[in-house]
Structures are given as structure tokens and as C-alpha cells.
Amino acid sequence: MCLSLASSLLAVGVALIHMVSPEPGSCANVTITQTYNLVRLMQANTTILLNTYLSHQGSPFSEPGFFNTGRLHYDGVPTIAIHFLEWRSMTDMERLGQNYRVYSIFFEFLQLIWDDQLEINPYETELLEMLKATQLHIKGLLSNLTGIMCSLGSPPTPLTDPLMMKVTEADTFEKKFRGSVVCYRYRQWVDRTVRDFSLLQNKYRS
């Protein structure tokens, strides 16, 4: 992906987030539909982000099949491990609250990954811009989730500093690894969020 396309994604993200930011008195069903459109945009960019990130980290991260070796865990990075019936039986507020918590964590992790890449790959402007664009999308999503949950009568409880300072203490390999896991798990979570909002959209459709 060229730099101009990465910049375009950032511009599209800004425009979309302005469009979907909840306003006082807005109906939950309208914001849910707009948020579904936002997460579909996020979904379209997740594979590009992951592949771009891996391509700039060198071996073994850039090698085909890196994620087929079971190296998918990093402390604190949210996973989507849940059985279908458990997911399907969640209440609306449970589903929304879980998304709010998870993306609050991803927002901080992506800031940490950006800081890491600024140190490791300071001249890879494309990657740095994509990480910032992803953060911007998450910020818009969190804003919308807050609006929806308030409209439904149960505002979210903000997370206080999901990441502790000690997580920043890592060597270069670990920094590259955790960034890989964050981008991979983020892609999985956006896929799940699309499914979450597909259900919500059908339920609250005008």
C-alpha cells in the first residue's frame, strides 16, 4: 500500500468519525447503524494494517505462516475466545460493555506500538500513519459506544490506565512481537464487533 493511500485512509477516518459522533438526544438505532458503518470501514483496513506492520519487522515476523506456529499470546492483549452460544446469549449491554473495555485497551496498546515503531522504524511513515489512523478509528468507536450505552440507560465505566508502565520495558524483539499480536488480535476483534453490531442493527432498526 502506498503512502498516499495510507493518508487517504486517515482522511476518510476523520470524516467518518465526525459523521458518526453521537449528539445529545440522538436515537440509539441511528448511532448503531452509523457505528456499524464505522466498524465495517475498520474491518476493511485490519488486514492491510497487519500485513504492513509485519512487512517492516524483518524475520521471523515477515515470513509466511508466522502466526501458524501458535505464538499468539501477549499479556494484556484481548482475545476473542468465546463459544458461539455464550456469545449469542449475551445481552446488548454485555456486548456493548465488552466492546468498550476491549477497544479502550487496544487504544492504549496502539499508542505503545506507535511509540515502539517510532524508535525501531522511524522512517516508515506509512506504517506510523496507519497506526495513528487506527487509533483515530478506535477513538471514534469508543465515542459512539458511549453514546449508544448512554441512550440505552447504562453509560460505560471508563477504564483507568489499562496498561501499566512496566509493560514498556521490553527489548526490540519483544516490542516487534507484541505489536504483531496486537495487530492480529485487533483484526479478530473487529470481525467480532461487526457481528455484534449486525445483531444490534437488526434489533434496533427503525
From TrEMBL:
Its main location: secreted. One of its GO terms (cellular component) is extracellular space. Residues 1-22 form the signal peptide. It is found in: Secreted. It comes from the Eukaryota. The keyword Secreted applies. InterPro entries: 4_helix_cytokine-like_core, PRF/CT. GO terms for biological process: cell surface receptor signaling pathway. Transmembrane segments: none annotated. GO terms for molecular function: cytokine activity. Keywords: Cytokine, Secreted, Signal. Belongs to the IL-6 superfamily. This is Cardiotrophin-2-like. It comes from Pogona vitticeps (central bearded dragon). The lineage of its organism: Eukaryota, Metazoa, Chordata, Craniata, Vertebrata.
